[in-house]
Amino acid sequence: MEIKYYIGLAVALFCIGVAGVLTRRNAIIIFMCIELMLNAVNVLLVAFSKMHALSALGKAMPSVVSDGQLFVFFIMVVAAAEVSVGLAIIVMMYRNVHAVDVNFLNRLKN
Amino acid sequence: MMLGGAFIKDRRTPVYLGIGGLLAILAACAVELKTGRPLLVIDVKDMLHANSFNLTFIMVALGCTLLYFLLNGRDFEKVGPHVSEYFALIFFILCGVSIVATFNTLLMLFLGIEIISIPLYILTGSDKRNLKSNEAALKYFLMGSFSTGIMLLGIAFMYGGNVMGTFFINNMNLGSGPMPALIGVGLVLLMVSMSFKVSAAPFHFWTPDVYDGAPTVFTSFMASIVKVASFFAFVRLFESAFGTLQSQWQTLVAVITAATLIIGNLTAVFQQSVKRMLAYSSIAQAGFMLLALFALNDTAKEGLVLYAAAYSLATIGLFAVLVKMKDYTVDGFNGLSKQQPLLALTVTIFLLSLTGIPLTAGFQAKFYMLWAAIQNGHHFWLVILAVLCAAISAYYYFRIIQAMYFRENSETVMNEWDITPSFKYLLLITAVLIIVLGIFPNLVIDWLHY
Question: A80 is in which domain, residue-wise?
């Protein structure tokens, strides 16, 4: 398949994530949408890595191909670290206000 | 250090450990800069690359952190009982700062930014019972990971779009012709996400809330060293990877700079709380630092290092005094000069430096930035706008000076028991440093040329 379909898929997933972050009010759902954005990037990186593998450049320099896939692992690791901190913050908030609604976030403005 | 907290009962020990550790790293850094020989050689496959420019910046960051520890070491206890963990997190952040200052591939940029951000989310929320702190942490976390997602998409496009298929910022060979679509999209996405990180308009809206809600001790660190480090990454990325394409994105940067300067300065005028006012002023100062990105020449680089030093020193000093205040509004500063003449004097010097009055480091830093923008030769209106905004900033900075010197207050404005003689002397040293840097800026800049 051509690379443009993969780019289309990844961008579509990413946009769904962005739309979710901007419209939903539940902190956990926003959080899942951010994960969706990161995974869209993973799809894109793997697709690009495959694209480079099929090109003349990738055959000459295998490191070009493996770089992209290594990056995916780093994204996964960092995403896991973010999840643990993020969920801790949400739990901390829940203990204080018994809600995970981000409308609560408007208090600081006053 | 983190695990040490379980065994060390005395709350003072982590402070001394932190200060000692920092001194050791600072000495190692200085030796490497002077002799050109690193103490430890680790093969990083050229993913990190340090020259005198990066090392000087790291030294400035470490020096400011040292001062921050010395000034605020005792205030950590007020936030919560986990003092050694706070220090450990700050050292993680410093690790991220040095990665961000020396990165050579987009992978290291991403990791460095995340190593800075994740401990910061924790520090922001470290006042667990305080609703404002919770709120700030959640907001910072959501905004931070959102912008990370955008940055990653930009990086993926750069990887797919450049003909070399590489993450190394020096090898991308983007040329100076028209950009392919993928590179163009990637560049804009990277610019948006980095603007988020350095709180440039129109992506600044999280800054006041987060700076306001976080415990004041940590706001100080966030607003000074972390901010400056993100700027450094921004400039390094765009200089190395996109330097040849500068004519195509320069107008975009000019617009972002202008918006940041105007929004930061105008909103700061209307703030009542000094902490919130400083948050907006940090947005305004970010506008000035963006001039370095706009100009991208040698003067801009020298100016950026000088700006980093001047801005961090003044911000750390101001926040150190603010932590001890009972009332964070401008009226809270009424009559400070009668009760604490020395502190009022140092606060005045910090504020003058932030405004950019001659004889202070802030003036030299602003001067270098403007001079770099003039040398660049494009968009002269931006320089005029920056000078006008500096004039506006005088209004809200001088309001505090006026409150300190010309208003009376019968109550004590500070927690008197909290102010030790050593704290006063350290503040005085910080103020003297600012004035010395203002008269001899070469003290910092000369390090660049070893």
Answer: 3-109
